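Hi all, posting the design record for the shared folder.

TITLE: backbone redesign
STEP: 1 of 1
STRUCTURE INPUT:
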């Protein structure tokens, strides 16, 4: 008779599920949401424990139910992401690759299984960092963004900087950081007066609270700056960028119009 220790079985499945979900996020270059990933991993581990119980109904472990739980895990981890279907397929593919891991519980130690999956995760991360760096070298050095706002339009040539990690806190999309001088023509005279003042970003935000367009404060970190705030505005349209929001840098950050 095969003996399975529920606690060890749950922990192993939790770790394996989390690493598979995190690997899916790495492969798709989306924001890592640790608490959501942990909740999804725990849900999958609980399901694995139920299927291992001696008196569990047979249909619990059937293929349709397994697929349904896989989709549920994807919803918990990646619900709301733009490419949810693609993320789900990648998660299923990775799970298929490592499907044998949970079957090794009876013959291989917890440490061996965890190290195997962790090593696979490390390999996947290294491979995709390498491919990302190749894509960065192959991608154009500059990108021209066409921005429209309240009937005004402008074209801004920005540096395609892979080091730009400024993301929209709501949806995780990369947010361009644009020099104020490159986009000031989009704003009204009253808005420009406030943006060009010596007020702090927070003070400018409150001064602009009643003025179009909508503004937000975005937290950021940079070399030599442990934390700060950038004022961001929402455009009516931006071609060449993921987000409609763009951060406004009061100082010129490069010789171009900004970075993306």
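Okay, here is what came back for every position:
SEQUENCE:
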């Amino acid at each position: 008779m095969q003996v399975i220790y529920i606690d060890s079985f749950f922990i192993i499945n939790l770790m394996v599920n989390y690493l598979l979900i995190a690997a899916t996020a790495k492969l798709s270059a989306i924001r890592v949401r640790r608490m959501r990933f942990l909740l999804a991993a725990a849900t999958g581990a609980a399901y694995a424990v139920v299927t291992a119980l001696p008196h569990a109904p047979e249909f619990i472990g059937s293929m349709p139910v397994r697929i349904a739980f896989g989709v549920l895990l994807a919803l918990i981890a990646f619900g709301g992401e733009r490419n949810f279907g693609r993320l789900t397929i990648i998660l299923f593919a990775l799970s298929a690759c490592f499907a044998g891991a949970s079957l090794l519980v009876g013959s291989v130690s917890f440490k061996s299984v965890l190290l195997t999956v962790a090593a696979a995760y490390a390999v996947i991360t290294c491979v995709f960092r390498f491919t990302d760096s190749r894509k960065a070298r192959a991608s154009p050095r500059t990108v021209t963004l066409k921005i429209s706002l309240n009937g005004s339009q402008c074209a801004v040539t920005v540096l395609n900087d892979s080091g730009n990690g400024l993301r929209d806190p709501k949806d995780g999309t990369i947010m361009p950081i644009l020099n104020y001088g490159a986009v000031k023509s989009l704003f009204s005279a009253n808005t420009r007066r406030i943006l060009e003042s010596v007020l702090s970003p927070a003070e400018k935000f409150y001064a602009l609270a009643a003025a179009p367009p909508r503004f937000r404060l975005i937290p950021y970190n940079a070399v030599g700056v442990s934390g700060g705030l950038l004022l961001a505005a929402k455009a009516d349209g931006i071609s060449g960028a993921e987000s409609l929001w763009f951060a406004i840098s009061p100082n010129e950050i490069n010789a171009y119009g900004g970075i993306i």
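COMMENT: The CA atoms of residues 82 and 187 lie 30 Å apart.
Let me know if anyone wants the other runs.
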